[in-house]
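Dear Dr. L.,

I hope this message finds you well. Following up on our conversation about the binding site, I have prepared a predicted three-dimensional model of the protein together with zinc ion. For your records, I am including the exact sequence and ligand specification that went into the calculation, followed by the structure tokens. Please feel free to forward this to your student if that is useful.
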Amino acid sequence: MANENLVVHQFGCLGDNYGYLVHDPGTGITIAIDTPEVGPIMKALDEKGWTLTHIFNTHHHFDHAGGNLELKEKTGCMIYGPSDERVEIPGRDHGVGGGAQITLGDGAIVADVIDVGGHTLGHIAYWFTEADKAFVGDALFTLGCGRMFEGTPDQMWAGLERLRNLPDSTKIYCAHEYTEGNLKFALSVEPGNSDLLARSGDILALRKAGQPTVPTTIGEEKRTNPFFRPESKNLQETIGKAGASVVDIFAETRRLKDSF
Ligand code: ZN
Ligand code: FE
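The resulting structure of the complex is given below.
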């Protein structure tokens, strides 16, 4: 099967971003998922002995596409990025949108593109189906989701629902380590969630040891992330939205998080 040998190398960039290199040992194809910071990405390539062949951008923000031009100049890599962003993706060679599929190296690497617009209008996620891994940028975080800078609640919820419908086992690689703050908020809006309470201890222990809480999985987020849980009665009652539509509940949860 394609992709099952894909290697993911994860490292810190800027203040709280994660950089990712996705590498296929068979073909040597190496993809940077977003380009938060050139120095750490070049250092990671050097340490691994990998040559950058591609960049996959999730959205236009500087901490995701800011390193594109310099990395392209240094390596000659090919850049894939969202086709429908309000702001141009620097150096983009191929625009892709929801429903597209990217195939590299004669099928060694296959990624499905998922529309997760809302944080930015054209935000996309890359789902490496056979590897059971998805790179979601700032659409979804461990126990949280991105701020809704450009889209509407309907749009953003539709994107989150697409992610929620991925298999529970899917590993989710998000672009920031925001989990401790997200945990505090999640506990405030769904204090009766026993899975969340149980997870809280694990997360605090990881952070205390300086360890990442990323990747997470779709299954874990379905049990504990309030932005995946508009159907929760405890959440609905806590935020004063009992019986409201899922979009309204999502919108209110997002609004409360903005000022938390
Ligand atoms: Zn962003
Ligand atoms: Fe970001």
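In brief: The first strand starts at residue 7 and ends at 13.

With kind regards,
A. P.
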